[in-house]
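Need a sequence for this fold. Nothing fancy.
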């Protein structure tokens, strides 16, 4: 399996090359030359694998279609090392919780940092350590987080040989729990940088460093954000697991399943797009945004219009306070028939010159819902409060604010006979203030997280300037 850039760069690379590279040399994102297609017999076989051998072996089946430069036995060992009940709290790893007929929550937040990012990041840590050991090399990971990616990456990379992490986050914009999770890590190989700006400023800094090829090569810069294909690939697996659980029993309907996905940077729902392109019988992929509705606007109108930092306000679902959805470029690449030059023109010239592009007249956009299954919707703070209250009042289940966005929008697209699975993004404790506002009581704090906010912290505050992060990396990077 070879990988191509969304912006048309001529090189074709193998998985382990792009694992350590992040962005392509032309600033594009990597995708496989083609999506492996699975037939009904393979889907049936994978169902048996999942139901008898478990999630780790299902992960191996999916990943092995994309990774052919790691020996199969080694890849299987890594999957089994990653996806264990000890790490994810349950043998099912990603169990479904039925709310009512045809409507489910998929639990993705039972990992070490209580967020769905652990599902991919735990595997990524093991992949990095394996490949760096094989090459006898070091890697300096540069990332940006709006809340959960940072802690998931740092917990996954703690103690990993040859790896240092430089994680940027918007200063003061994460929840107190999210800040405590990250900044209380005192490990020598973990560096937290709080940027005076919004998440998009952090993401722009990461891209600026990645696009400086000389600096990137000198300091061996890699990424853990979902711009890294390996991370997005790992997320594809739980769509299959969710499908296998929802498509059996009384609610199975006609064998198709829909997913509602809280969406900010478009990585989580893009993994669903990949699963659907592989042949997973997904009916609708529901992209649920908060007040930062760039993606909802596109799927409604065909116009992709980024917002300025001054217009990116803090909300009660802060991990989705994003106005430049990096992974959206991967979908646009597919939408445009994989025309890298056209994608390059849209994301470099048109966005740079006017801040938006318009695909509403494109025939492919007019058929996008039928061809790709995408629909969308928007949720507000008032919607989140109401959804949290309703879900607790009717089902005794407390959900976090981002999952509330996903559930609110999911209800707009329920279809009789087609199960709807809402992807959970985090446990409620990470957003305790809003839960208390909604329910008049704080959420339960899982064991082991008591007193986290009072722990000592290690963090560096920095202006939103790529030259500053470069200087910091040069001073602290692994040799």
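Here you go.
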């Amino acid at each position: 399996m070879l990988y191509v850039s969304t912006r048309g760069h001529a090189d074709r690379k193998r998985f382990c090359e792009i694992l350590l590279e992040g962005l392509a040399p032309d600033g594009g994102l990597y995708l496989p030359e083609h999506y492996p297609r699975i037939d009904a017999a393979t889907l049936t076989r994978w169902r048996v694998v999942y139901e008898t051998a478990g999630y780790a072996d299902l992960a191996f089946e999916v990943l092995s279609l994309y990774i052919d430069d790691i020996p199969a036995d080694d890849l299987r060992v890594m999957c089994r090392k990653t996806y264990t009940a000890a790490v994810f709290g349950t043998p099912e790893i990603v169990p479904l919780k039925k709310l009512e007929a045809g409507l489910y929550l998929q639990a993705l937040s039972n990992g070490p940092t209580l967020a769905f990012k652990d599902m991919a990041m735990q595997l990524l840590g093991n992949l990095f350590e394996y490949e760096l050991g094989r090459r006898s090399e070091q890697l300096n990971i540069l990332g940006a987080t709006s809340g959960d990616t940072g802690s998931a990456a740092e917990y996954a990379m703690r103690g990993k040989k040859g790896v240092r992490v430089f994680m940027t986050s918007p200063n003061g914009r994460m929840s107190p729990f999210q800040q405590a999770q990250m900044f209380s890590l005192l490990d020598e190989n973990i560096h937290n940088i709080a940027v005076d700006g919004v998440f998009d400023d952090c993401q722009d800094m990461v891209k600026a460093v990645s696009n400086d090829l000389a600096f990137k090569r000198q300091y061996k810069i890699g990424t853990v954000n979902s711009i890294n294909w390996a991370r997005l690939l790992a997320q594809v697996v739980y769509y299959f697991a969710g499908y296998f659980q929802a498509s059996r029993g009384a609610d199975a309907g006609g064998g198709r399943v829909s997913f509602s996905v809280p969406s900010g940077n478009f990585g989580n729902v893009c993994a669903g797009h990949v699963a659907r392109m592989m042949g997973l019988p997904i009916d609708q992929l529901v992209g649920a945004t908060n007040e930062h509705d760039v993606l909802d606007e596109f799927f409604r109108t065909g116009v992709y219009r980024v917002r300025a930092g001054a217009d990116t306000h803090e909300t009660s679902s802060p991990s989705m306070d994003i106005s430049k959805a990096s992974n959206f470029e991967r979908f646009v690449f597919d939408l445009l028939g994989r025309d890298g030059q056209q994608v390059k023109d849209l994301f470099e010239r048109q966005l740079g010159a006017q801040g938006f592009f318009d695909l509403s007249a494109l025939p492919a956009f007019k058929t996008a819902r039928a061809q790709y299954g995408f629909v969308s919707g928007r949720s507000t703070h008032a919607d989140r409060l109401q959804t949290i209250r309703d879900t607790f009042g009717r089902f005794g289940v407390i959900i976090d604010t981002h999952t509330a966005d996903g559930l609110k929008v999911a209800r707009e697209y329920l279809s009789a006979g087609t199960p709807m699975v809402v992807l959970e993004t985090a446990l409620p404790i990470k957003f305790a203030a809003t839960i208390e506002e909604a329910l008049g009581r704080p959420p339960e704090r899982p064991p082991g997280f008591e007193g986290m906010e009072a722990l000592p912290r290690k963090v560096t505050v920095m202006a939103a300037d790529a030259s500053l992060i470069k200087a910091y990396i040069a001073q602290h990077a692994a040799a």
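For context: The mean pLDDT is 93.
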